[in-house]
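Hey, I'm writing a tutorial for new members on how sequence and structure tokens pair up, and I'd like a real worked example in the thread rather than a made-up one. If someone can provide the structure for the chain below, I'll link this post from the tutorial.
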Amino acid sequence: MSATTFVYIIEIIGTFAFAISGIRLASAKRFDWFGAYVVGLATAIGGGTIRDLLLNLTPFWMTNSMYIIVTGIALLVVILFGKYLIRLHNTLFIFDTIGLGLFVVVGIQKSLMTEYPFWVAIIMGVLTGAAGGVIRDIFINEEPLIFRKDIYALACVVGGIAYYFSDKFGANYVVSQIICATFVIATRIIAVKYHLSLPVLKGEEDYIESKKKK
């Protein structure tokens, strides 16, 4: 299997996973079917579109309608099995985390295939994985997840670094991509399970409160 075919398969699976997460959030906000589809599509293709524009490439979904179709299938799955998905409280987290890990892989691999340096590839991986979620959260009027205390974009960076070292140690592209996705997903799961987060930057109110305590 060629690297291009492997990336395409990962991209389709990631599209489905991210579309499900976006549509599930839209359903919680009681969007109609079309609105939910738009949110799911934006979640699935948003990060990759920004990546391709920065890499001076034609956005991937404009040359293949499969991504539009896969998002429609995701909407159909939520419509038909929504009540079962809602019962599984971790469904949104699971699909979002899988999509995150897979899209980081796609972003890194596409950047390397266009002969950009590895540090650019890691940034493109983060953008591909996290930017769609930012667009989704803006659409549904939520504070974007990467701006909260949750370890989200940082998980993408961890995956990108894991990809870099596996590549340096001579692993083939399939192994490197699996390691990358595994690190992203594992980092995200561990952070949520053990409530790990980055320190919050203190604001004016925090300094005033600390002075009062003194």
